[in-house]
């Protein structure tokens, strides 16, 4: 078997099934095992990735993203410039989040087990813009915030890994926090995901100087006044 893109690891169908089962179990047991979450996403996502690609192909900006294949990394995003932007711009909010949680644009693992190069890029793109969804939904990166974001992403992308994290994350929350997210967060996140435009069709690199509220309005995302 031949590698089709950088980092690609070809596997047999049997190996893919084993990887999918093993990584799914590990990811359920520990949602912070990012390596297992990544493998689970790659080995179970074929039909979902085709669905995502078609939704991008049906949109002018999405089509351009598929053609140009931009990447989010410390070499493509000038964090020093972002720190100088006005407070509510996407770029300033993004760099502030990176600083707050001590993460970098390079934190996302490269896709390895997706055989279709186009599908591999779609999944890589999803990983690299995931942090922007936290900003769009005003969600922290703790377990409660991650669960809310994963419900939004699961509905919009149909990725099995997102559904696994969305449902499995609920089970890992304390009874009090589970009740809170069910009665507050998901009551607006689920309708928002169904009604909002597809987040993969936002060329985030070109919108870093834009006001975050303007991007939310463009997508059709409304943040409730009180979610605490």
Automatic annotation (TrEMBL):
Enzyme class, first EC level, given as a word: lyase
Annotated positions binding Zn(2+): 130-131, 134, 146
Reaction equations catalysed: a 4-hydroxy-3-methoxy-5-(all-trans-polyprenyl)benzoate + H(+) = a 2-methoxy-6-(all-trans-polyprenyl)phenol + CO2
Similarity field: Belongs to the COQ4 family.
Subunit record text: Component of a multi-subunit COQ enzyme complex.
Keyword Mitochondrion attributed: yes
Pathway recorded for this protein: Cofactor biosynthesis; ubiquinone biosynthesis
InterPro entries: Coq4, Coq4_euk
EC number(s) per entry: 4.1.1.130
Membrane topology: Peripheral membrane protein
Domain of life: Eukaryota
HAMAP family according to UniProt: Coq4
Pfam families: Coq4 (PF05019)
Function: Lyase that catalyzes the C1-decarboxylation of 4-hydroxy-3-methoxy-5-(all-trans-polyprenyl)benzoic acid into 2-methoxy-6-(all-trans-polyprenyl)phenol during ubiquinone biosynthesis.
Keywords: Lyase, Membrane, Metal-binding, Mitochondrion, Mitochondrion inner membrane, Ubiquinone biosynthesis, Zinc
The species this protein was found in: Clavelina lepadiformis
Stated name of the protein: Ubiquinone biosynthesis protein COQ4 homolog, mitochondrial
Cofactor or coenzyme needed: Zn(2+)
Protein's cellular compartments: Mitochondrion inner membrane
Keyword Metal-binding: yes
Primary localization class, coarse: mitochondrion
